Amino acid sequence: MKNPVLWLELRIRIRERKLWIVTCLYLLCLFGISCIALLMASTQGTNANPAETGLTIFGVGVFSLLGLLVVLGPLASAGSIAQEREQRTLPALMNTPLSPSSIVLGKLLASWAFVLWLATLSLPFLGMGVIWGAIAPGKMLGGMALAVAAGLVSSAIAVGLSGYFRRSLTSYLATGAVMFLWLVVWPIFGLLMMELFRWHTSGVPDNFAHHPLIFYGFFAHHPVAPLFFLVVPEASKEVPPEAIPFALGVWILLAVVFFNIARRGLRRQSMGKS
Amino acid sequence: MSTADRSLLDLSIHGVTIRYANGSTAVHELSLDLVPGEVFGLVGPNGAGKSSLLNCAAGLIAPRTGSITAGHHVITGQPQKAARHLVLMPDPLGVYLDITALEYMQFFAKAYDLTSDAARTRIAHASERLGLGPWLDHEVEALSSGWQRRLALSRVLIADAPIVLLDEPAAGLDVSGRRELLKIVRGFAAEGRSVLVTSHILPELEELADRFGIIQKGRWKPVHGDQVFFTRAELRSGFTQNHWWLECSDPSAACQLLGANATLEAGRIRLAVVDREVAAAAVGQLVQAGHKIYHFEAARRSLDDLALRALGEETTP
After folding, report:
1. Considering CB atoms only, which of B84, B88, B107 is closest to A91?
2. pLDDT tens track for A120-141
3. Rounded distance, CA B279 to CA B150, Å?
């Protein structure tokens, strides 16, 4: 493994009891979600049709997967650099030829490896949709790839803030605040804006895609949006084709910005002093 | 690796000022030159600026003014570049606790971008030299603080750095641990490495270092006139004069008789003269004057004494 920090992080993480507890809880969650999806399918009277059941399980499963990854990714990485400061291991780490970029990259990839591990575990659950003929394998893999990419972005946000803040608690709180802002507050703000537009203008069709500024500014880059466009057939007809590349572009931008915040934080405060 | 294979580097700290974000000045225009094979002991009370100076030398803190060079390489505020030439053992150690001792060494071998063969060789050498062999498969957390310190020192051998900065290396070690550490660090100097070490355990530092400097509030503290650095030989000899302790009858009168060379300290007379012949003559003078001599011995001036005198009684080095 070329990156020594990744090598070290994986060795440390794999021995942590926390990893296995989170894995078990995650599997339990997926199992519970699958049961709920089956129940939903049966109450809708579609349990006789395996494809419909598979589609329900996949739909619920993939969005739950995304939600779990977007939450668990930052949880696994929000203290990664701040903890180095708290445990006083940072001076020794910085007193090596490793650049701040390679240190941050190692931390980020280790967090992402955790996301990948969880995503891999969810394959059998999501695979039910493919087995029952509800969804094409390519679409399933595309959905998973989007969920994993969203996990990477949320991990990058967490790593970035852990490099910026000195205390891991502050970095956890800041990560929670940023994620809450992005996932909840920003779309609500977008809905309010839409209402404002509707109130001011008459005759405008009531559709997200017909308000480009609101659509791209508030909704298109939301972690759920590209998956929604990909998986839900009705949505894919409504939104412009460039919505998914736009979302991916914003995600890349966010990841790069927060990566640089962590890198600069390391360079600025290797000793917690300046 | 033999000394011949490694380039010997001197460390030059020139006019360094370190100021923190809160406006406080930790180090004020300090300069220090360290030559290969030398152990320099940095003495000072808590908060004097010792650790800041070491961290600055390692490039971890960028100074407001001044420069730091290792040989001909300018390393001021450049930790990556500095790491090619020097290793800092910080205080606290900050070793990774959740990995084995072997993994710790492997990690730093990877961080120094060593080939797997070179890494194996250096890890084997460091394990043998520091006696870490039996502990390689143990988790770092399970090692005693003494073994953790040895493990931290293994970075010096893995990096094969010509300059070694040790911040309180003996902290938390028992007497035998400190003696072992002393041997290891002297070994580094014998290999031609330049060693800069801080310690609050002054008797050990006195044995370890060749040259000393006392720092207080970020400035060098003169110990004899304007002289700020001193060798162990100068310390032992009391710079230009040797000292003797004298216990006799009526010490106040005896002190007056001996004149300016004698001072009364806690009922004893400290006699400061150039050599033992002059000291013996002074004792003869007292005997002739009818004083009874109870005890007479050469005073060995310790680093403790000197530091306390230089820093004032109110501070503990």
Report:
1. B88
2. 888 888 887 788 777 888 888 8
3. 46
